[in-house]
Every structure is written in structure tokens, then in C-alpha cells.
Design brief:
The complex is a heterodimer of chains A (295) and B (406). Helices cover 33% and strands 29% of the residues of chain A. With 295 residues, chain A is of the alpha/beta class. The chains are: A alpha/beta (295), B mainly alpha (406).
Amino acid sequence: MPALEVRGVSKSYGTKIAVDAVSLSVEPGQVFGLLGPNGAGKTSLLRMVMDITRPDAGEIRVLGAEPGPATKDRVAYLPEERGLYQRQRVGDVLRFLGEIKGLPSHVAARRAEAALDRVGLLETRRKRMRELSKGMQQKVQIAAVLLSEPEFVVFDEPFEGLDPVNRVLVTDLMKEHAARGAAIVLSSHRMDQVEAMCRQVLLLDRGRTVLEGEVGAIRERFADHSVLLEAEGDVAGDPLVERTEPRGPALRAWLRPGSSPEALLASLVSRGVRIRRFERALPSLDEVFVRAVKP
Amino acid sequence: MRKAWIVARHEFSATVKRAWFVVATLVFPLLFLGIGGGMLLLARHTVQESERAISGKPVGLIDLWGGLETAPRGFQVRRFASEEPARLALRDKELASFVVVPPDYLGPGRLKIVSMRRLTISTLDRAPLPQGFDDWLLENVLRGVEPARLARARDPAPFSLEFVDASGRTSDEDGMAAFKRSAAAYGFFLLLFVSIFTSSQYLLQGMAEEKENRVMEMVLSSVTADQLMLGKLLGLGAAGLLQLLVWVTVPVLGLAGFAVQIAIAPAAFAMCLAYFLLGYLLFGSLMLGFGALGTNFRESQQMASVWSLVGASPAFVLVALLEDPQGAIARVFSFVPFTAPTTMMFRYSIDAAGTPWIDIAGSMLVLAASTALALKVSARLYRVGLLLYGKRPGLREVWKWMVRSA
């Protein structure tokens, strides 16, 4: 049974269509990437999944049930628009957030300490939220999301404002939870992180699904007849090469129409070019994103 | 309900721990007692000062009527032939004041009193003359009249008042008791108004802070908007109730300490509690619902301020309520849900026996029904408003949401 199943879900605000007949499915233990430019409808979709708003049409099933009071204790949400009670103490805030997830008070208190310890902020538990830096507050928010050990978690732009060390920490936490069977939806503009974390992605643009599937297959689909190679010798002058572009220590070479990578490799070898690396160039998710949503 | 209870506990605990809550809860009654007591002491001091200044010196007299022949008792008189030397003596502080008795004193003539002492609010009704001066004048006006008549003329209409209400019941309340009853009525009015709106302000502030802090969505992924609203209403209502109890207890204990007894029927306290709870739920839910439509605390306050104004409107007719607590204005205000709590408490405190039970029950019924409707409409506005960031809805949108929920 999928942890999340969205079937033909639509949502409008006045005359503006925020989400238009979107469908997707996320399995337990899977990290699913939800991509899209600003205003694509990602947050509107996630709010419906989290039972904060209701869809106008379509069906959502979270952990086999309609989103509602019954599922709220089993899911967690790190929204893009986030913050915590600034005047209150870190430990008290986390205990409260644990209690409204259905944890008994003493369990919530214990889990709050463990979660703070996991993100390296145990010593801040008696401090007020406003005394923490922005980055520390974000780590507390992430601890708050994970302390109820949810079966399904939505992270909306979790890397915003985090330094590289903490980005790794968040990535590790997500992997840990996925490894114990939690389904995760990761909504982010950080394509590199999505590419590293997710096998399945869905790209939204103006409320509609533009792309959906495995990351590798999508990149294959957007492949543009080019190869990536590291070589000594004249590559650009090969008759089968249309143009080249340096990519760090490597070179990306676009083939002329009708030629194949195999033919180019044979041609280069026959011309005495020494090859150290030769592979089909696949576009990054960044490139796919830009090309897919280009007006 | 369990989650609403957790939210309520959290809200209560977070509110009562705040410094400004503690300060407001403790300082307000002390301030009330301090200002009240201070004014009382100041007034007494002013009167005593005034009397002391007069009693130590003779009073000047220019008797143009010529009838004040007897010697006064208890104070001294220094006679002058004209105003000029009297003014000089007054300037040299030999006199406390001087009096010119006009030749037509037995006709339309009025006394002219000249004094260097200005009147104050507490000595407005006292001429700057020594005690016994009036009696001395009367004694001279009625010279030759037998002593018993003279004594009656000094106090011609002593009375005891028996008040009969519309149902024929009587009471023999004196002026002081009436004053205390009015004081209690004003006290209840102020207490109820301040406590309802202070508690509602806590709600508004907490909600606006949550919106500004962006904590709302995280909380809404764990509880429903209705649970959150109910929890807030209960938690902050409990904080308001605690504050109300302190505000009632401290002045009562304080006044008891001053040996001042205010006539308050025990039923009035129970009614105050009931009207506080209903009034708080009505105004609190409306403030939450409409306040949620603002994008920050200031905007939320603006959106909710209309309810404070409506709630304060009985203050404009307090004199009418005091004059006729069972009159048409009083009854109309008792059945308008926004004005019912304060108006009914005022009416009951002024005239407990004369307030028909049907008015009390009816106003509570209207208030309860309105509160239920307000909770429903506000819950809808609250749900919609919570997720509005940086965009304030127009009146048409708000109306549409209200109608849809009703």
C-alpha cells in the first residue's frame, strides 16, 4: 500500500488554478522529489496532503486513509513558511509539538531531548527560541518534525538557510527515516540535493504535472546527443563533432546529426586522440528543470 | 478534544508565565486601590486643610443689614465698617475670609464672601466660612422665636426613605448604601469590560504572533483549525478567569482592610462569572476569526477593534442605566448580545430585586445563541485566515466566507 496516493487532485483559489489534476504515488521507505518553479502549486498540493486545506476535486490517501484528524499523528510536515514560538523555551516548544502529535507528555519530553541531541542542540533546551541563531532554529524545527517518528513526512524546502554541514545533517536524517520505512516527500529548488536523495520525482509547473518518473529515465529523455570526455588531442576538430564546451577538467562534445557516440569514439581513436574518459552526457536535473518549464 | 486540551494547557501556561501578564494581573488592582485610596486621602486632606485655615482666624464681617447683633459661638468675628479695611486685613492674613451682609438680606440680597482660598473639587459645596456661621445667621434672622422652633428651623426636613419597587417590595436603604450599590455596579461594569477585552486581546496577540512567526502550518499539520481555536479559547479564557479572580479578590480584600463594605449580593459574583464566560467566548471568537484576516498584529487589531467599540457602547448610556435600570434603554441593551454582559451586570448590581429574572435568562439565552453562531462563523474565518500571508482579504471575500459558514 502506498504511503501517499494522490489521484486527479485539483485546487483553485478564486479564478486561479493552483493545482490541476495532479496524480502521484509514494511508497514506504521512498524519498520522492517534488519539483517546480515558484508558484507552481507545490505548497498548495502539500497543504492538501497535510489536511490543512481540502482539494476541490480528486482524492488523496495518506497511509491508506483520507487525510484528517486520524492521520495527523502519523505524519509530519516541515512547511516552507516556518517558525516557532519565539518567547518560549526550546524544550517546552518541542514537548508541546510532540504532545499534539499524540505522544504522552513524558514521552514527548524524552523524545524532545533525544531529537535535540541528534541535531547537536541538546544544550539549548532551556534557552528561549529567540536566543538561537536562524540556522539553529531551523535545526530545532527539523528536530520537531522527526521527534514523533512519523510514517510519512513532507519536507518543503528543508535546505533553505542551512550551511553545507547542516545540509548534510538534514540529508542524513532523511535517509535514516527512509531507512526505517518512512515515506518522504522532498520539495526543493535544490536540484543537486533532490538528485542525490530521490529516485522518483514529479515536476509541477502552473499547477500541472510537467514530468514524472525515475530521475535516470527523465535525464535520458532529455539527453541531447552529446558525450562527456577527457582526452588529449584535437576533439573539436573531429568531423563528427558539431561543437564543444569545457566542463571542468572534461569536455562536452555535441555530435553532428546522424553520428553516434560509438562512431565518434572510433573516429577519435583512429585520429590518435588519447581517451581517458568517455561517456554519454546526461543533463542534470537543473537543466531538465529549466528546459521543461521554459515558456 | 484531547488535542484542544493540550493546546489550552500550552496557551494557559505560556500566557501566565509572561511578565506582562503577571504585571497586569497584580498591578491593575493595586493601581485601582492606590488611585482610589489616594484620591480619598487627598480629598480628606484638602477639606481638613480648608477647615484648619478658617478655624484658626476670625472671620471679617461688614453687616450692612444691621441684624447680626448677637455674639457668635465657636468662632470669632471682626467687624468692619466697609470692605476696604477688611480687604487689607485679608491681604495681611489676619482674616480667613470676610462676609458682606447686604442691606436687603431679608429680601433678595445675597451674602458676598471674600476669601484668598480657592475652592477645590472636594470643597465645592463648602463656603469658606467657619462651622456654625449658618446657625448664627439663622439665630439672628429668627431672633425671638422659641428654641424648639429655632432647632426645627435648623433641620426642617430630617427623613428616612422607604423605597417601594414596582412589585410592592420595600427597602429602607440610606444614601451611603445607595452610593455603595452604585460603586459596586460601576466596579462590575469596569471589571467585566476590562477582563473580557483583556482576555480577547491575549487571544488576538497570540494568534497574530503565531502568524508572524510562521508556526501556524506546523501546528495545523498536527491539530485541526477547530481544535486549535477551541484550545486557544479555553486556555486563554482560563488565564482571563484567573486574572478576573485576582482583580475581584484583591480589591475586596483591600477594601475590607480599609473597613469599607460594598453591598454585593453573592448571586452577583455568579452572574459575573457566567457573563464573563459567555462574553469572552463571544468577543474572543470574533476577535480570533476577524483577527486571523490581518497579516500582522497591527492589522489584526484593526480588524478586531470594531468588536471592542461595540462592546464598549454601554459606557455611553451608563447615566441612563443608573437613573432607570429597568427602563427601555436598559432592556434593549440587555438583549443585544454585544452589550448584554456589561449592561445586565450593571442593572443587577444597581437594582437586584427589581431586575426581572426573565431579563437575566433572556439575555443569557440571546448571548449563548449568538456565541454559538459567532464560534461557527469565526471558526470558518479563522481556518481561511490562518494561511493568508501578506494578503488582506476584501470585505466582499470576508462576507462570502461568513455567509458560507452560516
